[in-house]
Design a protein that fits this description.
- One of its GO terms (biological process) is muscle cell cellular homeostasis.
- With 607 residues, the chain is α+β, with helices and mostly antiparallel strands.
- Helices cover 36% and strands 14% of the residues.
- The protein has two domains: 111 residues, Pleckstrin-homology domain (PH domain)/Phosphotyrosine-binding domain (PTB) (PH-domain like), CATH 2.30.29.30; 382 residues, no CATH class.
- The protein has 21 helices and 17 strands.
- Helix 10 crosses helix 14 and helix 11 runs antiparallel to helix 12.
- The N terminus and C terminus are likely disordered.
Length: 607
């Protein structure tokens, strides 16, 4: 049993010794003990099924077993202890009752659970005595704690790690790394109390020539007060990526001289002939937004700027696209019509458009021209474009810690609406604000790692861990919509995801990584070069063979470990050789003999 459960068969856990007799625990007792050992700090049981429940596995049919629910996860273990399910409650998007008291047919009465991580679960119970009432109520309560006046698990967790992930991103340190401030760009604290813009961070970088009063005037003409501010500056040519929201032009074609002058100051900062404004939306959508007071920068009013529409669709289109993708990959993959089915979801088409837009931004910056990027409100498509362009331009963001800084800066501090898009702890599964914008971004990053396998210090496991904990509510990293909405004590009350990652960083490293500080990456954004991220989207299907680590990568890791082992032995030999007791050995050695230090260069030969 210990072997099948993949648990160390230690004697004290499995047996009781009394009067020289061994009493074997029941399987159910042993299973519950094994689960208990796996619980996180402050994770407690809220429900333990008294009787067996039937899990309707879409791959192998009905499986009888026990369900355990804690304040963090739903755990199912089959009666024979072969099959397990381990689902963070935060990953649950919807819980529904299946069938009624009069339902007929085997396994027609129970629960349907829709998850946010590309899987669904179905459990069948006996119809007698309202057997599902307790499990439904408990599951509904703890899967959606905010809808029931409870705290998210991140506020209950007391996990301890060697590193404090909250110290990863310090805005001033990151701006200094970029070479800021300069004689053209300054740091302002005008938003220190979120008075200028309640969805922006407190520390902003703006043109040196723009006064605080100028910033206030511009904020009145930008949606949500999200004025153009610097995200990244090119060290050599001083071209900048600025991000913002749409101008409030409206149907009457309003103008704002302060906004027009402000964009011209951005253009002048590095002598750009014409400022390029990348509007992420399709042009028809941008025009339609005028009806609700929004709009875009017209050529007649912004004469030193050119406007480029990138044709990336809105959050509702992306939500429906991922829903269609889920339909074709879970539970069954339609092999005979796979390519046409995948094409009908348009998911890879959207990935292509996002990557293509980011490439245009990066290329313009490399050519020495400053850009401004926006969509409607500047917290969805804008974040995708700026962060991907920065990933292409700046090798620092391609390191393990640099990527964490990128997410903290462009997504978390600049107000991507994680709470609204993911629905942490919220029972309203039909909320129209839900959308997989961040999942789509991570998919784009994965596409880049496939095309440039040596350019990124981190591996696929990091990307999957990030997405798993985007939903789990185990960490405080992705909670809330913006900085001002976050609890001021969030950092002291919750643990950062980067604490987990950086305390075990070797698990997230790419063995093929080769640092190249000045290299700009231009991925190929064509349908022929993009592929579905099978190991994420279809990972729950046991019939789809998981992409195993390649033999070359496996051998490379083995050789690296062997090198480290030899280096350690060499250090031990050097220590032994330098000790007083071994001095007579060195005196008697031949004059031409090579010293241990002379051999180090051979051990450092790259594999």
């Amino acid at each position: 049993g210990c072997h099948r459960l993949n648990i160390e068969p230690t004697l004290p856990s499995c047996v009781n010794l009394h009067c020289s007799r061994v009493v074997i625990m029941s399987l159910s007792q042993f299973v519950s003990q094994s689960i208990q050992r796996a619980l996180l700090a402050w994770e407690t049981y809220v429900y333990i099924a008294k009787a067996n429940i039937m899990y309707i596995c879409p791959f192998s049919g009905p499986v009888k077993g026990k369900v355990f629910i804690t304040n963090y996860r739903l755990y199912f273990k089959s009666a024979d202890a072969v099959m397990t399910l381990n689902v963070p409650l935060g990953a649950i998007g919807r819980v529904e009752k299946m069938g009624g008291a009069s339902s007929r047919g085997e396994n027609s009465y129970g629960l349907d659970i829709t998850c946010k991580d590309m899987r669904n679960l179905r459990f069948a119970l006996k119809q007698e005595g309202h057997s599902r009432r307790d499990i439904f109520d408990i599951l509904f309560r703890y899967a959606f704690p905010l809808s029931h006046g409870l705290l998210l698990f991140a506020y209950l967790s007391q996990e301890k790690y060697e590193e404090n992930g909250w110290s990863v991103y310090k805005p001033m340190d990151e701006f200094r790394r970029q070479g800021l401030p300069t004689d053209k760009w300054r740091i302002t604290f005008i938003n220190d109390n979120y008075e200028l813009c309640d969805t922006y961070p407190t520390i902003l970088v703006v043109p040196f020539k723009a006064t605080e009063e100028d910033l206030r005037k511009v904020s009145t003409f930008r949606s949500r007060g999200r004025i153009p501010v610097l995200s990244w500056i090119h060290r050599e040519n001083q071209a900048v990526i600025c991000r913002c929201s749409q101008p409030l032009v409206g149907m009457s074609g309003k103008r704002n001289k302060d906004d027009e002058r402000y964009l011209d100051v951005i253009r002048e900062a590095n002598g750009t002939a014409k400022l390029t404004i990348y509007d992420a939306r399709p042009s028809v959508n941008a025009v339609a937004n005028k009806a609700t007071g929004g709009g875009y920068e017209g050529d007649d009013t912004y004469q030193n700027a050119e406007l480029v529409f990138l044709d990336i669709h809105n959050i509702h289109v992306m939500r429906e696209s991922l829903k269609k993708l889920k339909d074709i990959v879970y539970p069954n993959v339609e092999e005979s019509h796979w390519l046409s089915s995948l094409e009908s979801t348009h998911w890879l088409e959207h990935i292509k458009l996002v990557l293509s837009g980011a490439i245009q931004v990066a290329d313009k910056i490399s050519g020495g021209n400053s850009v401004v990027v926006h969509c409607s409100d500047g917290w969805d498509r804008t974040a995708q474009l700026t962060s991907l362009a920065m990933l292409m331009l700046d090798s620092h963001y391609r390191t393990l810690r640099g990527f964490q800084v990128l997410l903290e800066k462009e997504w978390i501090s600049f107000g991507h609406k994680f709470a609204s898009r993911i629905g942490h702890g919220d029972k309203n599964h039909a909320d129209q604000d839900r959308s997989p914008i961040f999942v789509q971004f991570i998919d784009c990053v994965w596409q880049m790692t496939k095309q440039f396998p040596t350019a990124f210090e981190f591996n696929e496991r990091l990307l999957m861990t990030i997405l798993d904990h985007l939903f789990s509510c185990r960490f405080g990293t992705f909670l809330y919509n913006c900085e001002s909405a976050r609890d001021t004590n969030l950092r002291s009350k919750t643990v950062s995801l980067w604490s987990l990652v950086n305390s075990d960083s070797t698990s997230y490293l790419n063995p093929f990584y080769t640092p190249e500080s000045s290299r700009v990456l231009y991925p190929v954004a064509s349908m022929r070069h993009l592929e579905l991220w099978v190991t994420y989207y279809i990972r729950w299907n046991p019939r789809i063979r998981q992409q195993q680590q390649s033999p070359v990568e496996q051998r490379y890791i083995e050789l690296l470990a062997l090198r480290d082992e030899y280096l350690k032995k060499l250090e031990e030999l050097q220590l032994t050789d330098s000790s007083p007791n071994s001095s007579h050995l060195s005196n008697s050695s031949a004059p031409n003999a090579a010293s241990p230090t002379q051999h180090i260069t051979h051990l450092h030969t790259p594999f």
